[in-house]
C-alpha cells in the first residue's frame, strides 16, 4: 500500500488477499488494492483532524459518531467501505452472505470460528443468509444503536464487547 496508508489497512489488505487467494498482479488483487486506497484516502481526509497522516482511535471514534448522527448522509468512502465489506463476505458473489462466508472472513482476523457462527446467528436473526439490503440496515444499526443486543452489533463477528 502507499507509504501514507495506515499499517492497519495494509494488514487488512494482505489478510483479504491471502484469504481469497489473490496474488500480486491479479485483477482482483489490483481491484482490492485500489478500493482499499480509495477508502483510506476518504477516511484520512475526513477523520485525520490533526493532519498527521494517521487516524487515531479518538479521530476514528469521532468520525463514526458524526456518521451515527445521520447515516442516511454517508460520505462516498463510507458507502464504498460498506459495499467492500459486503462483497468481501459474499465470497460466492451470489448477493448474500451465509454463515460459512461470514465465519471465513471474521475468523481470518483472529476471532474464534464458533464466536463468528454465533455472531452470524444473532446478526441474521436465525436466517440462513443476509442480503445486501439487510446488510446496509445492519451496518447503520452497528453505528447508531445504543442496545448491545441489536443484530447490527454483530456484523464484525464479535459477540462479546
UniProtKB/TrEMBL annotation:
Coiled coil: none annotated. Transmembrane segments: none annotated. Residues 77-112 form the EF-hand domain. The keyword Calcium applies. GO terms for molecular function: calcium ion binding. This is Calexcitin-1. InterPro entries: EF-hand-dom_pair, EF_Hand_1_Ca_BS, EF_hand_dom. It comes from the Eukaryota. The keyword Calcium applies.
